[in-house]
């Protein structure tokens, strides 16, 4: 599958860098010959809904509901002063990564009580982007465990940047999250479209390499 080109001028990353604003079009371009399903997972409040909203070229499907008293003491709002709603089913968006390939993005709810939906949402996914908030790393351990146990697709980790995020090197984060050496770790800012697309390109390249390795073995 042609996820990315190796020519720096026409690479998906270069195209992403130039893509300042999403072209909100409901229709898929005629040039697209392949589509790939990508799952976006992560702890509650790491920025999954924001991320899919930033990159999607269609109005994203959201299932946000106001947070109520019932979640007090259960959903950890440390560092999340502005968060008033939560995803209760899924986020969905679409990104045409290059003229031939479109990604369908499925975001899962973060809380453990919704994890029984993961298997269904993950079916057929070629790759998983794990969003991480480095201010609240502990919340990502369970997510990675759940992923490694229940989702067979290759994954990459994107560390979402908040104004008060501590500066950790990717190696330090890899160690803290106990990741295998081949797992990509990238920085991103879910509010920024180009940076978010860059994280998806990294995942797409990793998924492609993992698939080629599997086919070759
Ligand atoms: N500054 C900053 N705020 C963010 C970023 N990503 C998400 N947020 C905010 O963090 C809160 C949680 O984001 P949300 O997308 O709902 O997280 P989700 O629970 O993973 O879907 C929201 O108030 C967002 O506006 C980011 O990259 N930078
Ligand atoms: Mg959400």
Whole-number average pLDDT?
A: 83
| Head-to-tail CA distance between termini | 18 Å
CATH 4th-level superfamily: P-loop containing nucleotide triphosphate hydrolases
Total DSSP helices = 6
Total beta-strand segments: 8
Shape: globular
String of helices and strands: HEHEEEEHEHEHEH
Structural class: alpha/beta
Number of folding domains? 1
Spatially, the strands of the biggest sheet line up as 4-5-1-6-7-8
What share of residues are in beta strands?
A: 15-25%
Radius of gyration: 17 Å
CATH topology (fold) name? Rossmann fold
Give an overview of the whole structure.
The protein has 217 residues and is an alpha/beta fold. It has one domain (12-216): 3-Layer(aba) Sandwich (Rossmann fold). The protein has six helices and eight strands. The chain has helices at 12-18, 48-55, 118-122, 138-150, 170-176, 193-216, and strands at 34-42, 64-66, 85-87, 91-98, 101-107, 127-133, 155-160, 185-188. Helix 5 links the parallel strand 7 and strand 8. The longest helix has 24 residues, at 193-216. It is globular. It starts with 11 loop residues before the first helix and ends with a helix. The relative contact order is 0.20. The structure holds guanosine-5'-diphosphate and magnesium ion. Magnesium ion binds next to helix 2.
């Amino acid at each position: 599958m042609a996820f990315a080109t190796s020519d720096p001028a026409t690479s998906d990353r270069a195209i992403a860098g130039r893509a300042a604003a999403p072209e909100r079009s409901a229709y898929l371009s005629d040039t697209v010959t392949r589509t790939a399903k990508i799952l976006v997972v992560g702890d509650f409040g790491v920025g999954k809904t924001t991320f899919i909203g930033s990159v999607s070229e269609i109005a994203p499907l959201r299932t946000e509901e106001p947070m109520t008293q019932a979640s007090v003491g259960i959903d950890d709002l440390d560092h999340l002063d502005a968060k008033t709603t939560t995803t209760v089913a899924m986020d969905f968006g679409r990104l045409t990564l290059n003229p031939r390939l479109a990604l369908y993005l499925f975001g899962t709810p973060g809380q453990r009580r919704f994890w029984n939906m993961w298997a269904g949402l993950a079916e057929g996914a070629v790759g998983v982007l794990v969003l991480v908030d480095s201010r609240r790393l502990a919340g990502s351990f369970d997510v990675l465990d759940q992923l490694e146990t229940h989702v067979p697709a290759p994954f990459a980790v994107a560390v979402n940047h908040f104004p008060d995020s501590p500066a950790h090197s990717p190696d330090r984060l890899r160690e803290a999250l106990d990741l295998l050496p081949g797992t990509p770790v990238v920085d991103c800012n879910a509010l920024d479209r180009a940076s978010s697309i860059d994280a998806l390109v990294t995942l797409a390249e990793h998924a492609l390499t993992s698939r080629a390795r599997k086919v070759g073995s």
